[in-house]
Amino acid sequence: MAFILEESERLKKLPPYLFIEIDRAKRRARERGVKVIDFGVGDPDKPTPGFILSALTKAVRKPETHHYPLDRGHGPFRKTAALWIKKRFGVALNPDTEIQPLIGSKEGIAHLPLAFINPGDVVLVPDPCYPPYKSGTLFAGGQIHLMPLREENGFLPEFEKVPAGVLKRAKIIFVNYPNNPTGAIAPRRFYERLVVWATEHKILIASDLAYSEVYFGKEKPLSVLEIPGAKDVCIEFHSLSKTCNMTGWRVGFAAGAEAAVNALLRVKSNVDSGVFTAIQEAAMEALRQSFAFSKKTNALYKKRRDLLVTGLKGLGFPVTPNPSTFYVFTRLPGGEKDSTLYCKKLLEETGIVATPGVGFGKAGEGYIRFALTVPQAQIKEALVRMKKWR
Ligand SMILES: *Cc1c(COP(=O)(O)O)cnc(C)c1O
Protein backbone atom coordinates (compact mmCIF):
# COMPACT_ATOMS: atom_id res chain seq x y z
CA MET A 1 0.00 0.00 0.00
CA ALA A 2 1.10 3.55 -0.69
CA PHE A 3 -0.08 4.62 2.74
CA ILE A 4 -0.58 3.09 6.14
CA LEU A 5 -4.18 2.28 6.85
CA GLU A 6 -4.87 2.14 10.55
CA GLU A 7 -6.20 -1.22 11.70
CA SER A 8 -9.61 -1.35 13.33
CA GLU A 9 -9.94 -1.12 17.11
CA ARG A 10 -11.35 -4.64 17.09
CA LEU A 11 -8.23 -6.05 15.46
CA LYS A 12 -6.01 -4.09 17.81
CA LYS A 13 -7.93 -5.46 20.77
CA LEU A 14 -7.07 -9.09 19.94
CA PRO A 15 -4.76 -10.65 22.52
CA PRO A 16 -1.13 -10.92 21.37
CA TYR A 17 -0.30 -14.10 19.54
CA LEU A 18 1.70 -15.87 22.21
CA PHE A 19 2.88 -18.72 20.05
CA ILE A 20 4.86 -16.41 17.84
CA GLU A 21 8.14 -16.94 19.69
CA ILE A 22 7.71 -20.69 19.52
CA ASP A 23 6.97 -20.48 15.80
CA ARG A 24 10.11 -18.47 15.22
CA ALA A 25 12.25 -20.82 17.30
CA LYS A 26 10.79 -23.77 15.37
CA ARG A 27 11.78 -22.21 12.07
CA ARG A 28 15.28 -21.42 13.34
CA ALA A 29 15.77 -24.98 14.61
CA ARG A 30 14.69 -26.45 11.26
CA GLU A 31 17.07 -24.09 9.46
CA ARG A 32 19.88 -25.37 11.68
CA GLY A 33 19.02 -28.88 10.47
CA VAL A 34 17.52 -30.05 13.77
CA LYS A 35 14.98 -32.89 13.43
CA VAL A 36 12.10 -31.17 15.16
CA ILE A 37 9.57 -33.32 17.04
CA ASP A 38 6.32 -31.38 17.01
CA PHE A 39 3.87 -31.86 19.89
CA GLY A 40 2.57 -28.37 19.21
CA VAL A 41 -0.32 -28.62 16.82
CA GLY A 42 -3.63 -30.31 17.61
CA ASP A 43 -4.00 -31.72 14.13
CA PRO A 44 -4.27 -35.51 13.65
CA ASP A 45 -1.15 -36.89 11.95
CA LYS A 46 -3.05 -39.67 10.13
CA PRO A 47 -4.83 -39.06 6.81
CA THR A 48 -8.60 -38.96 6.38
CA PRO A 49 -9.79 -42.59 6.11
CA GLY A 50 -10.53 -44.10 2.70
CA PHE A 51 -14.28 -44.55 3.20
CA ILE A 52 -14.65 -40.77 3.51
CA LEU A 53 -12.48 -40.15 0.44
CA SER A 54 -14.64 -42.56 -1.57
CA ALA A 55 -17.80 -40.80 -0.47
CA LEU A 56 -16.31 -37.48 -1.54
CA THR A 57 -15.20 -38.66 -4.98
CA LYS A 58 -18.65 -40.07 -5.60
CA ALA A 59 -20.35 -36.85 -4.48
CA VAL A 60 -18.01 -34.62 -6.45
CA ARG A 61 -19.13 -36.27 -9.69
CA LYS A 62 -22.75 -35.31 -9.12
CA PRO A 63 -23.32 -31.96 -10.87
CA GLU A 64 -26.00 -30.99 -8.36
CA THR A 65 -23.27 -30.63 -5.73
CA HIS A 66 -21.50 -27.98 -7.81
CA HIS A 67 -23.79 -25.07 -7.00
CA TYR A 68 -24.13 -22.77 -4.01
CA PRO A 69 -25.09 -24.89 -1.04
CA LEU A 70 -28.46 -24.07 0.57
CA ASP A 71 -27.97 -21.73 3.51
CA ARG A 72 -29.53 -24.15 5.98
CA GLY A 73 -27.20 -26.76 4.54
CA HIS A 74 -27.76 -30.06 2.80
CA GLY A 75 -30.98 -31.64 4.12
CA PRO A 76 -29.62 -35.21 4.16
CA PHE A 77 -26.56 -34.05 6.13
CA ARG A 78 -28.76 -32.35 8.73
CA LYS A 79 -30.83 -35.56 9.03
CA THR A 80 -27.70 -37.68 9.43
CA ALA A 81 -26.34 -35.28 12.05
CA ALA A 82 -29.63 -35.44 13.99
CA LEU A 83 -29.54 -39.25 13.82
CA TRP A 84 -25.94 -39.23 15.05
CA ILE A 85 -26.91 -37.03 18.02
CA LYS A 86 -29.83 -39.35 18.80
CA LYS A 87 -27.66 -42.44 18.66
CA ARG A 88 -24.77 -40.99 20.62
CA PHE A 89 -26.55 -38.89 23.26
CA GLY A 90 -30.16 -40.08 23.12
CA VAL A 91 -31.35 -36.56 22.29
CA ALA A 92 -34.00 -35.99 19.61
CA LEU A 93 -33.49 -32.86 17.50
CA ASN A 94 -35.41 -31.50 14.55
CA PRO A 95 -32.98 -31.60 11.61
CA ASP A 96 -34.76 -28.70 9.90
CA THR A 97 -34.67 -26.22 12.77
CA GLU A 98 -32.19 -27.44 15.39
CA ILE A 99 -29.16 -28.43 13.29
CA GLN A 100 -26.94 -26.08 11.26
CA PRO A 101 -23.97 -27.22 9.14
CA LEU A 102 -20.82 -25.17 9.72
CA ILE A 103 -17.56 -24.58 7.87
CA GLY A 104 -15.80 -26.31 10.76
CA SER A 105 -17.00 -25.70 14.30
CA LYS A 106 -14.54 -22.81 14.72
CA GLU A 107 -16.56 -20.82 12.22
CA GLY A 108 -19.77 -21.22 14.22
CA ILE A 109 -18.04 -20.54 17.52
CA ALA A 110 -16.47 -17.31 16.25
CA HIS A 111 -19.72 -16.13 14.63
CA LEU A 112 -22.05 -16.90 17.54
CA PRO A 113 -21.31 -13.69 19.52
CA LEU A 114 -22.21 -11.58 16.46
CA ALA A 115 -25.72 -12.99 16.75
CA PHE A 116 -26.29 -12.01 20.39
CA ILE A 117 -23.69 -9.61 21.73
CA ASN A 118 -24.05 -5.83 21.79
CA PRO A 119 -21.21 -3.52 22.83
CA GLY A 120 -20.80 -3.86 26.58
CA ASP A 121 -22.44 -7.28 26.81
CA VAL A 122 -20.37 -9.93 28.52
CA VAL A 123 -19.33 -13.38 27.37
CA LEU A 124 -18.13 -15.80 30.05
CA VAL A 125 -15.02 -17.58 28.84
CA PRO A 126 -12.95 -20.31 30.49
CA ASP A 127 -9.26 -19.66 31.12
CA PRO A 128 -7.25 -21.44 29.67
CA CYS A 129 -9.28 -21.92 26.49
CA TYR A 130 -9.48 -22.40 22.75
CA PRO A 131 -8.74 -18.86 21.45
CA PRO A 132 -11.83 -18.21 19.19
CA TYR A 133 -14.10 -17.83 22.27
CA LYS A 134 -12.18 -14.65 22.97
CA SER A 135 -11.68 -13.35 19.45
CA GLY A 136 -15.33 -13.99 18.50
CA THR A 137 -16.41 -11.99 21.54
CA LEU A 138 -14.07 -9.10 20.76
CA PHE A 139 -15.15 -8.96 17.10
CA ALA A 140 -18.74 -8.56 18.27
CA GLY A 141 -17.75 -5.71 20.59
CA GLY A 142 -18.40 -7.79 23.69
CA GLN A 143 -16.45 -7.96 26.92
CA ILE A 144 -14.70 -11.10 28.05
CA HIS A 145 -15.09 -12.26 31.63
CA LEU A 146 -12.61 -15.03 32.34
CA MET A 147 -13.44 -18.00 34.54
CA PRO A 148 -10.24 -19.73 35.67
CA LEU A 149 -10.10 -23.51 35.30
CA ARG A 150 -8.17 -24.90 38.23
CA GLU A 151 -6.75 -28.37 38.48
CA GLU A 152 -8.11 -28.79 42.03
CA ASN A 153 -11.64 -28.20 40.63
CA GLY A 154 -11.20 -30.77 37.87
CA PHE A 155 -10.61 -27.90 35.44
CA LEU A 156 -14.30 -26.92 35.68
CA PRO A 157 -15.26 -23.21 35.81
CA GLU A 158 -16.90 -21.94 38.99
CA PHE A 159 -19.67 -20.11 37.13
CA GLU A 160 -21.64 -19.63 40.35
CA LYS A 161 -18.87 -17.29 41.50
CA VAL A 162 -19.27 -14.82 38.63
CA PRO A 163 -20.07 -11.48 40.33
CA ALA A 164 -23.71 -10.35 40.12
CA GLY A 165 -22.77 -7.13 38.29
CA VAL A 166 -21.06 -9.13 35.53
CA LEU A 167 -23.85 -11.68 35.44
CA LYS A 168 -26.41 -8.98 34.66
CA ARG A 169 -24.59 -8.14 31.43
CA ALA A 170 -23.66 -11.73 30.51
CA LYS A 171 -25.43 -13.36 27.57
CA ILE A 172 -23.27 -16.34 26.61
CA ILE A 173 -21.13 -18.83 28.54
CA PHE A 174 -18.63 -20.99 26.66
CA VAL A 175 -17.89 -24.45 28.00
CA ASN A 176 -15.73 -27.10 26.36
CA TYR A 177 -15.64 -30.72 27.54
CA PRO A 178 -13.74 -32.84 26.69
CA ASN A 179 -11.50 -29.83 27.20
CA ASN A 180 -8.71 -28.38 25.15
CA PRO A 181 -6.07 -27.83 26.53
CA THR A 182 -6.61 -29.61 29.88
CA GLY A 183 -8.04 -32.95 28.69
CA ALA A 184 -10.73 -32.81 31.40
CA ILE A 185 -14.26 -34.25 31.14
CA ALA A 186 -17.34 -32.68 32.79
CA PRO A 187 -19.53 -34.84 35.05
CA ARG A 188 -23.33 -34.87 34.73
CA ARG A 189 -23.76 -32.89 37.96
CA PHE A 190 -21.76 -30.01 36.48
CA TYR A 191 -24.09 -29.80 33.49
CA GLU A 192 -27.19 -30.10 35.69
CA ARG A 193 -26.05 -27.13 37.79
CA LEU A 194 -25.08 -25.21 34.66
CA VAL A 195 -28.49 -25.64 33.00
CA VAL A 196 -30.37 -24.50 36.12
CA TRP A 197 -28.06 -21.51 36.54
CA ALA A 198 -28.10 -20.52 32.85
CA THR A 199 -31.90 -20.69 32.75
CA GLU A 200 -32.19 -18.58 35.89
CA HIS A 201 -29.82 -15.91 34.57
CA LYS A 202 -30.96 -16.07 30.92
CA ILE A 203 -27.54 -17.01 29.61
CA LEU A 204 -27.01 -19.10 26.47
CA ILE A 205 -24.74 -22.11 27.00
CA ALA A 206 -22.36 -22.48 24.05
CA SER A 207 -20.90 -25.94 24.44
CA ASP A 208 -17.93 -26.96 22.30
CA LEU A 209 -17.88 -30.74 21.73
CA ALA A 210 -15.08 -30.92 19.19
CA TYR A 211 -13.55 -33.79 21.21
CA SER A 212 -16.72 -35.66 22.22
CA GLU A 213 -15.43 -38.86 20.58
CA VAL A 214 -11.81 -38.70 21.79
CA TYR A 215 -11.83 -40.45 25.17
CA PHE A 216 -10.10 -43.38 26.85
CA GLY A 217 -12.29 -44.62 29.70
CA LYS A 218 -15.53 -46.58 29.68
CA GLU A 219 -17.63 -43.50 30.35
CA LYS A 220 -18.49 -41.49 27.29
CA PRO A 221 -18.33 -37.72 27.50
CA LEU A 222 -21.79 -36.17 27.87
CA SER A 223 -23.69 -33.60 25.86
CA VAL A 224 -25.34 -30.77 27.82
CA LEU A 225 -28.41 -31.47 25.72
CA GLU A 226 -28.87 -34.71 27.69
CA ILE A 227 -29.93 -32.63 30.70
CA PRO A 228 -33.69 -31.96 30.89
CA GLY A 229 -34.48 -28.39 29.89
CA ALA A 230 -31.08 -27.84 28.27
CA LYS A 231 -32.39 -27.61 24.73
CA ASP A 232 -33.97 -24.25 25.47
CA VAL A 233 -30.74 -22.64 26.68
CA CYS A 234 -27.96 -24.37 24.80
CA ILE A 235 -26.24 -24.44 21.44
CA GLU A 236 -23.63 -27.11 20.88
CA PHE A 237 -20.76 -27.23 18.41
CA HIS A 238 -19.75 -30.51 16.79
CA SER A 239 -16.85 -31.14 14.49
CA LEU A 240 -15.60 -33.93 12.27
CA SER A 241 -12.08 -32.53 12.32
CA LYS A 242 -10.59 -34.36 15.29
CA THR A 243 -12.85 -37.42 15.26
CA CYS A 244 -12.38 -38.38 11.61
CA ASN A 245 -9.01 -36.79 10.78
CA MET A 246 -10.75 -34.12 8.71
CA THR A 247 -9.18 -30.87 9.91
CA GLY A 248 -8.52 -29.75 6.34
CA TRP A 249 -12.07 -30.36 5.13
CA ARG A 250 -13.83 -27.67 7.17
CA VAL A 251 -17.07 -29.26 8.21
CA GLY A 252 -19.00 -29.42 11.46
CA PHE A 253 -22.43 -28.49 12.75
CA ALA A 254 -24.28 -26.62 15.46
CA ALA A 255 -27.12 -28.29 17.37
CA GLY A 256 -29.58 -27.11 19.99
CA ALA A 257 -31.97 -24.25 20.75
CA GLU A 258 -33.89 -23.28 17.63
CA ALA A 259 -33.63 -19.54 18.37
CA ALA A 260 -29.83 -19.75 18.69
CA VAL A 261 -29.41 -21.93 15.61
CA ASN A 262 -31.58 -19.50 13.64
CA ALA A 263 -29.72 -16.41 14.80
CA LEU A 264 -26.39 -18.02 13.93
CA LEU A 265 -27.76 -18.94 10.51
CA ARG A 266 -28.74 -15.31 9.90
CA VAL A 267 -25.20 -14.16 10.63
CA LYS A 268 -23.79 -16.88 8.39
CA SER A 269 -26.13 -16.17 5.50
CA ASN A 270 -24.63 -12.70 5.36
CA VAL A 271 -21.02 -13.82 5.60
CA ASP A 272 -20.50 -17.18 3.92
CA SER A 273 -22.37 -19.43 1.56
CA GLY A 274 -22.03 -22.69 3.41
CA VAL A 275 -20.09 -25.93 3.06
CA PHE A 276 -19.46 -27.50 -0.37
CA THR A 277 -22.34 -29.96 -0.75
CA ALA A 278 -19.98 -32.81 -1.77
CA ILE A 279 -18.14 -32.33 1.53
CA GLN A 280 -21.44 -32.48 3.39
CA GLU A 281 -22.16 -35.78 1.64
CA ALA A 282 -18.75 -37.14 2.58
CA ALA A 283 -19.34 -35.94 6.15
CA MET A 284 -22.54 -38.02 6.23
CA GLU A 285 -20.46 -41.13 5.59
CA ALA A 286 -17.99 -39.96 8.23
CA LEU A 287 -20.78 -39.64 10.81
CA ARG A 288 -22.22 -43.04 9.89
CA GLN A 289 -18.90 -44.77 10.55
CA SER A 290 -17.51 -42.43 13.21
CA PHE A 291 -18.05 -44.68 16.24
CA ALA A 292 -16.17 -47.61 14.74
CA PHE A 293 -13.44 -45.34 13.43
CA SER A 294 -13.01 -43.50 16.75
CA LYS A 295 -12.51 -46.80 18.53
CA LYS A 296 -9.41 -47.39 16.42
CA THR A 297 -7.97 -43.89 16.70
CA ASN A 298 -8.64 -43.75 20.44
CA ALA A 299 -6.71 -46.98 20.93
CA LEU A 300 -3.81 -45.38 19.08
CA TYR A 301 -3.94 -42.14 21.09
CA LYS A 302 -4.19 -44.11 24.32
CA LYS A 303 -0.96 -45.99 23.57
CA ARG A 304 0.78 -42.71 22.81
CA ARG A 305 -0.67 -41.09 25.93
CA ASP A 306 0.49 -43.90 28.20
CA LEU A 307 3.95 -43.82 26.68
CA LEU A 308 4.31 -40.05 27.04
CA VAL A 309 2.72 -39.79 30.50
CA THR A 310 4.92 -42.56 31.91
CA GLY A 311 7.98 -40.93 30.39
CA LEU A 312 7.14 -37.44 31.62
CA LYS A 313 6.47 -38.76 35.13
CA GLY A 314 9.94 -40.29 35.13
CA LEU A 315 11.30 -36.87 34.21
CA GLY A 316 9.63 -35.18 37.18
CA PHE A 317 6.47 -33.77 35.60
CA PRO A 318 3.53 -33.99 38.07
CA VAL A 319 1.36 -35.38 35.27
CA THR A 320 -1.89 -37.36 35.48
CA PRO A 321 -3.22 -39.24 32.43
CA ASN A 322 -5.84 -37.22 30.53
CA PRO A 323 -9.19 -39.07 30.32
CA SER A 324 -10.01 -37.48 26.97
CA THR A 325 -8.73 -35.40 24.03
CA PHE A 326 -5.32 -35.96 22.48
CA TYR A 327 -3.59 -33.52 24.80
CA VAL A 328 -1.33 -34.19 27.77
CA PHE A 329 -1.54 -31.08 29.95
CA THR A 330 0.72 -30.88 32.94
CA ARG A 331 2.42 -28.52 35.34
CA LEU A 332 6.08 -28.00 34.59
CA PRO A 333 8.63 -29.95 36.63
CA GLY A 334 10.35 -28.45 39.67
CA GLY A 335 7.75 -25.74 40.19
CA GLU A 336 8.95 -23.96 37.04
CA LYS A 337 6.52 -21.10 36.35
CA ASP A 338 7.43 -19.49 33.03
CA SER A 339 5.91 -21.78 30.39
CA THR A 340 6.96 -19.62 27.42
CA LEU A 341 10.59 -19.59 28.48
CA TYR A 342 10.50 -23.32 29.25
CA CYS A 343 9.04 -24.18 25.83
CA LYS A 344 11.49 -21.91 24.08
CA LYS A 345 14.45 -23.55 25.81
CA LEU A 346 13.02 -27.02 25.23
CA LEU A 347 12.81 -26.28 21.53
CA GLU A 348 16.18 -24.59 21.20
CA GLU A 349 18.06 -27.20 23.21
CA THR A 350 16.26 -30.45 22.27
CA GLY A 351 14.29 -29.72 19.08
CA ILE A 352 11.00 -30.60 20.82
CA VAL A 353 7.97 -28.40 20.26
CA ALA A 354 5.24 -28.19 22.91
CA THR A 355 2.76 -25.42 23.66
CA PRO A 356 3.16 -23.12 26.68
CA GLY A 357 0.03 -23.21 28.86
CA VAL A 358 -0.05 -19.41 29.07
CA GLY A 359 -0.76 -19.34 25.32
CA PHE A 360 -4.31 -20.46 26.21
CA GLY A 361 -4.75 -17.84 28.93
CA LYS A 362 -3.22 -16.55 32.13
CA ALA A 363 -4.54 -19.43 34.23
CA GLY A 364 -2.58 -21.81 31.99
CA GLU A 365 0.74 -20.34 33.12
CA GLY A 366 3.05 -22.92 34.67
CA TYR A 367 1.59 -25.65 32.44
CA ILE A 368 2.67 -27.21 29.15
CA ARG A 369 0.56 -29.00 26.52
CA PHE A 370 1.77 -31.93 24.42
CA ALA A 371 -0.43 -32.98 21.48
CA LEU A 372 -0.48 -36.76 20.96
CA THR A 373 -0.48 -36.35 17.19
CA VAL A 374 3.04 -37.77 16.99
CA PRO A 375 3.98 -41.42 16.23
CA GLN A 376 5.23 -43.58 19.09
CA ALA A 377 8.79 -43.80 17.73
CA GLN A 378 9.06 -40.02 17.88
CA ILE A 379 7.58 -39.89 21.38
CA LYS A 380 10.29 -42.34 22.48
CA GLU A 381 12.95 -40.25 20.78
CA ALA A 382 11.61 -37.10 22.47
CA LEU A 383 11.77 -38.76 25.88
CA VAL A 384 15.39 -39.79 25.26
CA ARG A 385 16.29 -36.23 24.28
CA MET A 386 14.55 -34.79 27.33
CA LYS A 387 16.29 -37.23 29.65
CA LYS A 388 19.68 -36.16 28.33
CA TRP A 389 18.63 -32.52 28.56
CA ARG A 390 17.63 -32.69 32.18
C1 LIG B 1 -9.93 -28.12 17.00
C2 LIG B 1 -10.95 -27.47 17.88
C3 LIG B 1 -12.15 -26.98 17.37
C4 LIG B 1 -12.53 -26.81 15.97
O1 LIG B 1 -12.27 -27.45 14.97
P1 LIG B 1 -12.90 -27.27 13.55
O2 LIG B 1 -11.85 -27.85 12.69
O3 LIG B 1 -13.09 -25.80 13.29
O4 LIG B 1 -14.19 -27.99 13.57
C5 LIG B 1 -13.09 -26.47 18.25
N1 LIG B 1 -12.86 -26.44 19.54
C6 LIG B 1 -11.72 -26.88 20.07
C7 LIG B 1 -11.56 -26.81 21.53
C8 LIG B 1 -10.72 -27.40 19.26
O5 LIG B 1 -9.56 -27.80 19.79
Descriptive report:
The protein is of the alpha/beta class. The protein folds into two domains: 10-47 and 292-389, Aspartate Aminotransferase, domain 1 (Alpha-Beta Complex), CATH 3.90.1150; 50-289, Type I PLP-dependent aspartate aminotransferase-like (Major domain) (Aspartate Aminotransferase, domain 2, 3-Layer(aba) Sandwich). 41% of the residues lie in helices and 14% in strands. The chain contains twelve helices and twelve strands. It has helices at residues 9-12, 20-31, 50-60, 75-89, 105-116, 132-139, 164-169, 188-201, 258-269, 277-314, 339-350, 376-389, and strands at residues 37-38, 99-102, 122-127, 143-148, 170-175, 204-208, 234-239, 252-256, 327-331, 352-353, 355-356, 367-371. A seven-stranded mixed beta sheet has the order 2-8-7-6-5-3-4, sandwiched between helices. Helix 6 links the parallel strand 3 and strand 4. Helix 5 packs parallel to helix 6 and helix 5 (105-116) packs across helix 9. The radius of gyration is 21 Å and the shape is globular. The mean pLDDT is 96. Residues 42, 104-106, 130, 176, 180, 208, 210, 239, 241-242, 247, 252 line the site of pyridoxal-5'-phosphate.
SSE map:
Blueprint: H1 9-12, H2 20-31, E1 37-38, H3 50-60, H4 75-89, E2 99-102, H5 105-116, E3 122-127, H6 132-139, E4 143-148, H7 164-169, E5 170-175, H8 188-201, E6 204-208, E7 234-239, E8 252-256, H9 258-269, H10 277-314, E9 327-331, H11 339-350, E10 352-353, E11 355-356, E12 367-371, H12 376-389
Parallel strand pairs: 1-10, 3-4, 3-5, 5-6, 6-7
Antiparallel strand pairs: 2-8, 7-8, 9-12, 11-12
Helix pairs in contact: 2-11, 3-10, 4-10, 5-6, 5-9, 10-12
Bound molecules: pyridoxal-5'-phosphate.
Residues 42, 104-106, 130, 176, 180, 208, 210, 239, 241-242, 247, 252 line the site of pyridoxal-5'-phosphate.
